[in-house]
Design a protein that fits this description.
The protein is α/β, with parallel strands linked by helices and 245 residues long. It has one domain: Nucleoside phosphorylase domain (Rossmann fold). 27% of the residues lie in helices and 24% in strands. The chain has 5 helices and 11 strands, in the order ββββαβββαββαβαβα. It has helices at residues 66-76, 135-147, 169-178, 190-196, 221-244; strands at 4-8, 19-24, 37-42, 45-51, 80-89, 99-100, 104-107, 152-153, 157-160, 182-184, 201-210. Strands 1, 2, 3, 4, 5, 6, 7, 8, 9, 10 and 11 form an 11-stranded mixed beta sheet that branches. Strand 3 and strand 4 form a beta hairpin. Helix 2 (135-147) crosses helix 5. 45% of the residues are buried.
């Protein structure tokens, strides 16, 4: 039986309902992960959980130690990873409260440690990243979203920006021209690091606000926090269905 790891993003720094057996602190070759790796039972299944931003939420997206997080999950026994991400909506279909299970990603970040292979002395290692998300995991997520009767898109392009600031109207317009449907700050290098470790990886993205220029008013944290509070119950239910399946 595959051991699944859940990486919780903004609004999911803990997984209510998780019966914790152990909380392991890892010292990886890349430093300390964002939080202890929690090992326990959720929805009747063995699961690992890691808070991407720490618990409580304290680490901004550009300072997350993605390499340490992925390495620690692999060392803890993860065989597949579901990442939960709070995102902004670019495509008109991606309104607040809508879910997206992206099939592609565009990386707009810079300066992040993005590979485990940067110190290769004998040869350069390239991994195929044509399709960044695992098809089987994506199918499980969409089936679970169907069970919960959530509004969702089974495909989408995730544009990952540097943060921690939100984007300008012009930047979102550029991303829309590039084909991005949603925008977030934590999708990369997380996805490619999972690929380098041969861990199947998929993203469950919850839209918590319209992206810059996609609504009449300014984006407020109150708006985002309200959407997170309303949506995380559905996120947890979807995750339970995936693990039960």
């Amino acid at each position: 039986m595959t051991v699944c790891a859940i990486i919780g993003g903004t609004g999911l720094t803990r997984l209510d309902g998780l019966t914790i057996n152990t909380a392991r602190h890892f010292d990886t070759p890349y430093g300390a992960p964002s939080a202890p790796v929690l090992h326990g039972d959720y929805a009747g299944r063995e699961v690992l959980f890691l808070a991407r931003h720490g618990h409580p939420h304290r680490i901004p997206p550009h300072q997350v130690n993605y390499r340490a997080n992925l390495w620690a999950l692999r060392e803890a026994g993860a065989q597949a990873i579901i990442a939960v991400n709070a995102v902004g909506g670019i495509h008109p279909a991606m309104g607040t409260g809508h879910f997206c299970v992206p099939h592609q990603i565009i990386d707009y970040t810079s300066g992040r440690a993005h590979t485990f292979y940067e110190d290769e002395l004998e040869h350069v290692t390239h991994v195929d990243f044509s399709h960044p998300y695992d098809a089987q995991l994506r199918n499980k997520l969409t089936a679970a979203l169907d069970q919960e009767r959530c509004g969702y898109s089974s495909h989408g392009v995730y544009g990952c920006t540097q943060g921690p600031r939100l984007e300008t109207v012009a930047e979102i317009a550029r991303m829309e021209r590039d084909g991005c449907d949603i925008v977030g700050m934590t999708g990369m290098p997380e996805a490619v690091l999972a690929r380098e470790l041969a861990l199947p990886y998929a993203c469950l993205a919850l839209v918590v606000n319209p992206a810059a220029g996609k609504s009449k008013g300014l984006i407020t944290m109150a708006e985002i926090e309200c959407a997170l509070e309303e949506g995380m119950g559905q996120v947890k239910a979807v995750l339970a269905h995936v693990l039960e399946g």
